[in-house]
Design goal:
alpha/beta
């Protein structure tokens, strides 16, 4: 090989390695949700003074999917496609999120939990498994604490039980910033009050400043079979806090999803769906 071609080969290798180094890891990405399957039933449930959007898919033992803060039900499209093959899957937009309306009543996890319990009543579902992401996981823990008779299992991903479980570095994280930006655009397209995103964020932020605030003693009273779940690169929740939650809840299973972050259901949809299904269907 001539000196020129040797130099050219070295240049190609350096270029390829640099491009690889600059490529984003899966956990740094924020994929768009898949297209939501056609629901068997959808509409608005009148609960606690709001109109709560919901959709139902498939048949079998029920599974309720609850999205995270600023999000909406369509984020669960991949999980709905998988779980609805063997389960009746219910999704909804939390109050003020997506297509659901809100009131001036201050946000709180107890209130949001009561919205979902009222939705289950409206749909005549006595008991369900629950898969919750971020705020959705916190709502699931709230229900497990106060209404365990309504749950068969709880799969709580990227949740926290005290405000100091949140990593302050999330405020400067680019993936999280992209999620907030996308959520604002989705809100304008989906909401009945498309010009009120800033007011909605300000309202729910008051809850995030002080809630949740559960003690180890309270967590120790949970009887619902629970999985505490996190991506191994979660931007928002400290790993030690996730491990604390798993140790504080009796019999809880700790599941760490590889090469995934706070947005694991979008980054690793197949692995996420299978992990949830395996836990929900475990004997």
């Amino acid at each position: 090989m001539t000196r020129f071609w040797k130099a050219f080969a070295v240049l190609l290798l350096l270029t390829a390695s640099t491009a690889f180094a600059l490529a984003e890891e899966r956990w740094q990405t924020l994929p768009e949700p898949a297209a939501m399957p056609k629901p068997d039933q959808s509409g608005y449930a009148p609960v606690n003074g709001i109109q709560m959007y919901y959709a139902v898919f498939g048949a079998g033992d029920p599974v309720l999917l609850i999205h995270g803060g600023l999000g909406h039900a369509d984020i669960w499209a991949s999980q709905v496609a998988t779980l609805s093959k063997t389960h009746k899957v219910i999704v909804a937009d939390s109050r003020g999120h997506g297509r659901s309306t809100r009131t001036e009543q201050p946000y709180g996890y107890d209130l949001m939990a009561s919205d979902y319990l009222a939705l289950l009543d409206y749909l005549k579902i006595d008991k369900t498994a629950l898969v919750g992401w971020s705020d959705g996981g916190i709502i699931g823990i709230d229900i497990a604490l106060h209404h365990p008779e309504r749950l068969t299992r709880l799969f709580a991903q990227a949740a926290n039980v005290t405000t100091d479980g949140v990593d302050p570095g999330v405020m400067t994280n680019k993936t999280f910033a992209a999620y907030i930006d996308r959520s604002g655009r989705d809100y304008k397209k989906m909401s009945k009050t498309p010009d009120q995103y800033d007011a909605f964020v300000a309202q729910i932020s008051h809850m995030w400043e002080t809630e949740p605030a559960w003690t180890k003693e309270q967590l120790g009273k949970i009887t619902t079979p629970t999985a505490i779940v996190a991506g191994d690169h979660d931007e928002a929740i400290k790993r030690e806090h996730t491990e604390y939650m798993a140790s504080a809840i009796p019999g809880a299973k700790l599941i760490i999803l590889p090469n995934a972050s706070h947005f694991a259901m979008l980054q690793a949809p197949d692995e996420y769906s299978q992990a949830a299904l395996d836990f929900i269907d475990a004997k």
